[in-house]
Amino acid sequence: MTIRSADAPGEPADVRVVGVAGGGQLAQMMLPAAAKLGLDVVVLDPDANCSAAGQASHTVVGSFDSLEALRDLAARSDVVTFEIERISTAALRTLEAEGHRVRPSAAVLEVIQDKLVQKQFLERHAVPTSAFVACTPPDALPWPLPCVWKARRDGYDGRGVAMLRSAADVARLPAGEAMLEALVDIDYELAIMIARDVRGNVALYPLTEILMDPQAHVMDTVLAPAEAPAAVAARCASLAEAVVSALDYVGVLAIEFFVDKQGEVLVNEISPRPHNSGHYTIEACATSQFEQHLRAVSGRELGATTLLRPALTFNILGAPGAQGTPVYVGFDAFEGDDDVHVHCYDKPLVRPGRKMAHITVLADSRAEALERAARIRETVRVEGKHD
Ligand code: ADP
């Protein structure tokens, strides 16, 4: 099945205001790109102090489930997009029925938002992915251990993922709709950003390598370009193109891959928005993922995706025990350094493990980027203070 989204006429001159559901760091990082393109951005977020609130033209404060709030966002915008997946697709469908442009479409989000439906979609389109089965604890597990449990909805940054190796792991599972995946014997993990415009033109970014935090299952480091065999890189590129075309996608989309010990490429998951694995594009590519997303959803032509320099991005999470107002320690040291780019997310509160910032290091080689990043990591952290 191919999903088709109706294209509203009148591109792109009439798109002046982009409404973004979600005002987190991804929306925040869209703002400089929007200014460059002459676009205004209005955000919707439940938190009036969200990362993007300070710089967006307007913040609609409301829930992602609220049709009223989404209508308010749409009424202020020429096109609605989103930076998180936790949005009512029924409300987005209503916006579409009322004549608003929603990009990517509500149908796309319906497929991706629910991990089980996403896997079924991949399977239907012959995109290789690990074996899976629906499963809702505390019902008996349909598979023997080991395997991987995933919440169908609202999981992110490793929350909603559990490796099941023992009965104790199973006993700890929360209730709620979930699925099991076969445990893949991962050799390494890759990701790619891909953009597709309203006319169906596609632009691929370079393939990147992602290093995960083995405990938290959260992305730790992204290296661009990946050091993968040419056949693996070509496979990832063709799978990415197949996915965006099957979704009739508009915007940028991230695809994460596993390469198993046999060298097989499997799609792990797809994200219908700019993504952590694409932050390096801000400094390292001719067009950032944020500008590219805005170009696509506003009906503009896509920009060049050329990698200008090798790059490494690492996340900075709230330090263990950090609570209260964030205190950024050691971040000023890189002011004026053209090869070290610090992005703080302006979140009002820090929590242990919360994504608070990222740093991108540009270098002449992968080895140099890894070495410089290792040194920087030792000097920066985000703590908390109580006012
Ligand atoms: P999230 O949506 O929270 O990013 P993912 O589904 O991407 O969660 O899983 C997070 C990480 O957990 C992956 O990057 C990988 O390291 C590990 N993981 C997930 N699924 C599997 C699997 N089927 N086999 C082995 N490891 C897995």
How does this structure look, described?
With 387 residues, the chain is an alpha+beta fold. The chain folds into 3 domains: 2-117 and 185-297, 2-Layer Sandwich (D-amino Acid Aminotransferase, Chain A, domain 1), CATH 3.30.470; 131-181, Dna Ligase, domain 1 (2-Layer Sandwich), CATH 3.30.1490; 311-385, ATP-grasp fold, B domain (D-amino Acid Aminotransferase, Chain A, domain 1), CATH 3.30.470. Helices cover 25% and strands 29% of the residues. It has 10 helices and 19 strands. The strands form 4 sheets. Strands 9, 10, 11, 12, 13, 14, 15, 17 and 18 form a 9-stranded antiparallel beta sheet that branches. The protein has a 4-stranded parallel beta sheet with strand order 3-2-1-4, with helices on both faces. α1 (25-37) crosses α9 (289-297), α2 packs across α3 and α4 (106-113) crosses α5. The protein is globular, with a radius of gyration of 20 Å. The structure holds adenosine-5'-diphosphate.
Features:
single chain; globular; 10 helices; Dna Ligase, domain 1; alpha+beta; D-amino Acid Aminotransferase, Chain A, domain 1; binds adenosine-5'-diphosphate; four-stranded parallel beta sheet; 387 residues
